[in-house]
Amino acid sequence: MQSICRHSSVNLRAKWSLLILLIAGAGTGCTSLGAKPWDHDLLAERAMQVDAYPLQSGMDDHIYFSKEASSGGRSFAGGGCGCN
Amino acid sequence: MRSERSSEIFGSTRSHPAEHRDVSTTFTAMASPCLVLVDTADPLLGAAVGSIVKAEALRIEAKFSRYRPSVVTTLNENAGEELEVDAETADLVDYSVLCYHLSQGRFDITSGALRRVWKFDGSGAVPTQDQVRQILKCVGWHRVTWNRPFLRLGVGMEIDFGGIGKEYAVDRALALASEFTDEPLLVNLGGDLRVSGPRRDGSHWHVAIENVDCPGAAAGMLQLSRGALATSGDTYRYLIKDAKRYGHVLDPVTGWPIADAPRSVTVHADTCSEAGQLAKLALLRGAGAEEFLKAEQVRAWCAR
Amino acid sequence: MQLKASGATGAPTLRQALKVAAAGLLANGAAKAQEAPAKPPATSVDSGVLYYHENGRVQAVEPELNVAQKINEDSTLSLGFVFDSLTGPTPYGAVPSTLPQTYIRPYKIVPVGTLVPLTTSSGGSTVVLLPPASGSKTETLAATSIVPANTYPLDPSFHDTRVAGHVGWDQALTSTLKLDGGVAYSHEYDYRSASASLGLSKDFNAHNTTLSAAVNYESDLSFPVGGTPTPLTAMSGDFKGPDATRHEVDAVLGITQVMSRRWLSTLSYSYADSHGYQNNPYKIISVVDPVSGQPTAQLYESRPESRRKQSVFFENKIHLPSDVIAISLRGYKDDWGIKSVTADLRYRYQITQEYYLEPHFRYYEQGAADFFHYYLVAGEALPQYASADTRLAKFNAQTYGLKFGMPLNKGSELNLRVEYYDQRGNGSPSYAIGQLKQQNLFPDLKAFTVLLGYSYAF
């Protein structure tokens, strides 16, 4: 149990650093990253949306929530159903 | 909306020191820096005029955008079907048709499809003759059926008002602002600009012309008291392959860039639309640009 | 490239023609700024029907409908409705035995003297009437079921119908700042849930970067059939405790970055804190004899009253010349000791410009909760928390799927997706005692889903 706790706190710190780094990068203006406004053509397609098929991903999240212990990630971790 | 040609000449106005400052509004529209100057001592009026201009620029940008849902994307997604367009779009189409005839087919709002094979993205890739031949099947106003207000593009074609939209926006924005106030004002959308008249004290607006070879450095100063300035050119978008420079102004008849076009043409005329169109027509003449401008008695500057 | 002569002869020059044309274009003042009839779609409808079948056990059919309507340039209203009907036997949590076992659950309180048929079976159970306490005016009906020897104990009376709806609102505050909010409500015959959420997102770098943050509050009420049992007490036919509540607050922080014209990347972190009734009121855990491994008692499970969950999600979408690949990874951890990793891969192959085929593979692996036990051993001290729900056990799962998509006319798409889910855990732990050595303590779960979807924008 002890070693697991220590290991998990390192993982958490790593996750935090990555997130802060990315936000800081965005804040200082990652102007090297990205595409000119006229090059957003492919990104406008349905398949390239962050959640392209929300009905389908909602159903998947619901099924996995009732069969597995994890939840959250892309969206909220709550369930909204009694299959806890 | 993005202009087919980049505007590398920024008009920037600089008041002489120790004079009162104009009320200025800056914003971004049509992927360009925009500036509105109102020669007034009333900051609220200046700000109000600025927001009128900004709103009109953004309205036109959104209405004719090639990326966000707009009149243009609806037309392009339904190429092959007949669609009815509103009065403003119809007026722009009528104007484009006139320019198409005046340029003997070289100014063509359906030429945007050429972008599919000509990618000026710095990779130096030039399409093959075959690719160009294929894409030309989707280009050409003669493949469009236009019976105002009904427009039908050929299948696979696309329409793009980028070549006239910015100048049109300058004229429209200035008209709206002038209806709102009599104070002298200047509207500059990414280098295409127009003034309502001389400044309050009768003096000129000072416009700096950017040096084509050193962006950011001034090549000269213009004094403007009426009319508009518009620029066409290729300083920022070009390919160099096998030591040959291909400007990004494409000839819709051949599918290849115009040979020996000047690097930029700046025209002065009464309206921004007229100035922009003359600049474009000159550029489309390639080597004959200066001759054309002289024959038409146009006040213009070419850089080669 | 003929040049026209100047106006000396009176004939119109190109320039004069252009002047006239430009004047015509700019003539009509304010009348111009009207809305074009060629409008972008203002209403979008997204619908689907899911069919779910789990190893000859549970079956579910779930239709769902979502409608989004643009109210004006900046705001959209969305409504959604889902109906869920789940039937079929589900594990009790008890261990199988070489002897038959009986399970009991109360389900109704009736006045003393009510005539009740004692041999009805509702989904495989038998109804029994429990003798009332002396002086009581009511007696309890309970359902009992007998599980044969060497069979994994499944509760046959499981059926669940759920109805849920949500209302959402999206509002663009500026060209780069957007606000969104929603409320949702879900109701089953033994559970209801209400939640509200609020989110904000901001674009930077010419819409190449988006930062978003959202919070959600959920309030749940459990009112299980037969009441809420006291944890770690023996399974009985008596009516149990009152309704139980649970509250959860979640927050999500995300960043989406356009990496290039063809590549979009998303990273998000979510945190949830839940307090209240976390138990599954129907699940039990067996207490077994330390030598023979035979169950000697069945106790209601017990989970901690609070749970804190965290997850990090990273996804990349890459647009190849015509196909699209989507890869995502999720890491999860909570204070019940559960850790998991999920990897998901989709490849959308464009058969033609319209039709596509999308194979899908998902890999999932989780560790057990600290208080998960396959069974408890008689004679040892009872832990504070214990659950035999295999959902909290250590296992891995793979999903294999294929989706076929067919855009119909402009703005609409019909699609069919078939998936197979295979969950495997350790059914023979090395420490199993007595008869448990020969039993499978983690029956594999195999589920098959078909989802037919239709979306349309007009």
Layout of helices and strands, plus pairs?
The complex is a heterotrimer of chains A (84), B (304) and C (458).
Chain A: H1 2-27, H2 54-67
Chain B: E1 12-13, E2 23-29, E3 32-38, H1 43-63, H2 71-77, E4 82-84, H3 87-102, H4 129-136, E5 145-147, E6 150-152, H5 162-180, E7 185-189, E8 192-195, E9 205-210, E10 218-224, E11 228-233, E12 238-241, E13 244-247, E14 264-269, H6 272-284, H7 289-295, E15 299-303
Helix pairs in contact in B: 1-5, 5-6, 6-7
Chain C: H1 14-27, E1 43-54, E2 59-72, E3 75-87, E4 90-91, E5 101-111, E6 126-130, E7 138-147, E8 154-155, E9 159-172, E10 177-188, E11 191-204, E12 209-222, E13 244-260, E14 263-276, E15 284-288, E16 295-300, E17 306-319, E18 324-334, E19 339-350, E20 356-366, E21 376-377, E22 395-407, E23 412-425, E24 445-457
Please tell me about this protein's structure:
The complex is a heterotrimer of chains A (84), B (304) and C (458). Chain A is mainly α. Chain A has two helices and no strands. Chain A is elongated and about 45 Å long. The two termini of chain A are 25 Å apart. In chain B, 30% of the residues lie in helices and 24% in strands. Chain B contains seven helices and 15 strands. In chain B, the strands form four sheets. Chain B has a seven-stranded antiparallel β-sheet, with helices on one face. Chain C folds into two domains: 336 residues, Beta Barrel (Porin), CATH 2.40.160.40; 47 residues. Chains A and C meet through helix 1 and helix 2 of A and strand 1, strand 2, strand 9, strand 10 and strand 11 of C.
Identify the overall geometry of chain B: globular
Whole-number tally of structural domains of chain C: 2
Greatest interface and its residue counts? A-C, 57 and 95 residues
Strand order of the largest sheet of chain B: 2-3-7-8-11-14-15
Q: What does the oligomeric state look like here?
A: heterotrimer
Given helix and strand content, the structural type of chain B is alpha+beta
Strand proportion of chain B: 15-25%
Which ranges of chain C are low-confidence, i.e. pLDDT below 50, for 5 or more consecutive residues?
A: 1-11, 30-39
Describe the strand arrangement of the main beta sheet of chain C, using strand numbers: 1-2-3-9-10-11-12-13-14-17-18-19-20-22-23-24
Main β sheet profile of chain C? 16 strands, antiparallel, barrel
